[in-house]
Amino acid sequence: MTARLVPVLIFGAVFAAAAVLAALGYLSLRRWEVAAELQLRERARDTAAMAAEKVEMAVIRAGQDGVASLQAAALDPAFGPDAVEAWRARNPLFGSVYLCDRHGRVLYPTRLSRDDAEAVAALRAEISQKFWERGGRRHLEAQGHLVLAAVIPGSSRGPLLVGLRRDEQVLSREVLEKTLGGTEGKGALAVLDGAGRAVFASRPLHDAAPVLTVPFGEALPAWRVALYQPAGLSPRDMVRRQTMIFMAAFALLLLVIAAGLTGTYRLGRRESEIARLKSDFVANVSHDLKTPLSLIRMFAETLEMDRVPDERRRREYYAVLTRESERLSRLIDNVLDFSRIESGRQRYEIAPGSVEPIIHEVLESFRHPLEQQGFKVDVSIAPDLPDVPLDTEAMKQALANLVDNAVKYSGDGRRITVAARPDGDGVSVEVADEGVGIPLSERERIFEKFYRIGRSETQGRRGSGVGLALVKHIVEAHGGRVTVDGRPGAGSRFTLHVPGGA
Ligand code: ADP
After folding, report:
1. In this predicted model, what pLDDT tens digit does every residue of 389-430 receive, in sequence order?
2. 329-337: which pairs have CB atoms within 8 A and are 24 or more residues apart?
3. What is the DSSP letter of 436?
4. DSSP 363-389
5. Whole-structure pTM over 0.85, yes or no?
């Protein structure tokens, strides 16, 4: 009971440890997943923020340059609408330009549309007295548009209020393209306007999904920079993939551990089974040796004391002596051959020969026990049997083991058939009985060393359990094989297939 409990406890402990490991691994994986996603997002946010800053600076610089060059032009006493037109031609970024003096007189555009008039009015309303005096630049919202407002000294006319409205197409072409066009990496950077439309994208966005957006500063207030990643490359997807790989590797590891444990457990069980079979083997062999020996001794002593006056009985006793000594030497041969096979020392001397004399010789050696136990033996040997390469002694032993088993496991069906016939270019020899038969599930195992169906005590028939292992080894050394068929309860049939020499 305790011997059985120990492996169960060990396996339980290892499985429990593996389960704890798996649970801990899973928890830390989840934690890593969250942290890794956060980190990847952080990195993406940094990229987008840097892009936003670059764009913002470029826009501000373009505004500053525009205002500065306009200021330079305004210092000219001849500064007028023509000079503004010329300036506009040089600065296409600014789609609309408004210029007015402190008294509200609009210097540019010369022909004011209603929109323009409203824009200028809105612009003036936003400009404080202080701004007129101090000068400077501001981004303002006028008529729903972003306008860069600046007060510049305007020669003799006094300070001028400048309003510059950017042209989005030119902005995209001139500023965004130049600043973000060369972005490397798998992601795409896009600039979204106030309505969420992409004004610019560093590469086509069709199969990409937005990961995050960051706002610009006051130069592009409602606009945002968006970072897009191609499908499957977003931080979440990447982390998911890594997690899946980790999980799969972990599952594989657990599987290997489980397989290893099961393998070790099976090996252990097999070892203890072999140990048990070996001890059975020793007990069985000792008993098998004892039985013929005590018979030989008893009959020899009786004969020696001259207590058998009857000639017929005397002959009978001699026959018993011969039969039992043959049985003894067969048993000893089996054990010795088996030990030679186990240590790899067994050699076969194979030369072309006929199986017919082998069959006759083996049956002759069993004649007494067969007759005595009332067996009927049918022998059928095909007349055209070819010679096959064989080790005569080994083949005799294999056949003797089969006949011995047929006798041992015959029960009440006392009929044995031995047949030999051509089989391909070789020969097949079969030994069939009408005895207890062999269950289908045992037909592989009976050829294993020490294996016996049921325990020898319950079976009631003594044996060492190595007979069929020897038969298998011998016939395989001849390049052949041994098969078994028949029905449980209605006998068995063993066939040796011995190939020809071709
Ligand atoms: P054993 O010395 O026990 O006969 P074997 O290796 O010759 O050892 O046979 C292994 C087992 O196969 C036997 O214990 C028996 O259970 C079964 N067996 C072998 N031959 C026969 C047969 N002719 N009929 C039924 N069972 C058989």
Report:
1. 999 999 999 999 999 999 999 888 899 999 999 999 999 999
2. 330/397, 330/400, 330/401, 330/404, 331/285, 331/288, 331/289, 331/292, 331/464, 332/289, 333/397, 334/397, 334/401, 334/464, 334/466, 334/467, 334/470, 335/285, 335/464, 335/466, 337/394, 337/397, 337/470
3. S
4. HHHTHHHHHHTT-EEEEEE-TTPPPEE
5. no
Q: CB–CB of 335/285 below 8 Å?
A: yes
Each residue's pLDDT tens digit, 69-79: 999 988 888 88
- Pick the atom of ligand 1 nearest to 494's CA: 23
Cα gap 351→268, rounded to integer Å: 42
Ligand 1 touching residue 463 (CB < 6 A): yes
Q: Whose CA is nearest to atom 20 of ligand 1?
A: 405
Compute, in degrees rounded to 10, the torsion defined by CA atoms 192, 194, 196, 200: -20
By the 8 A CB rule, do 398 and 477 touch? no
C-alpha 424 to ligand 1 mean position (Å): 28
Rounded to the nearest angstrom, the gap between the alpha carbon of residue 434 and the centroid of all alpha carbons in its chain is: 51
Q: What 8-state DSSP symbol labels residue 206?
A: T
**Is 63 near ligand 1, meaning CB less than 6 Å away?**
no
> In angstroms, rounded to a whole number, what is the distance separating the alpha carbons of residues 497 and 424?
10
Cα 401 to ligand 1 centroid, rounded to whole Å: 9
Q: Is the CB of 450 under 6 A from ligand 1?
A: no
Q: Which of 291, 332, 408, 461 for mutating ligand 1's site (highest number of atoms within 8 Å of CB)?
A: 408
DSSP state of 111: S
Identity of the residue numbered 38: L
Which is the closest atom of ligand 1 to the Cα of 431?
A: 23
**Nearest-CA residue for atom 8 of ligand 1:** 465
CB 385 within 8 A of CB 427: yes
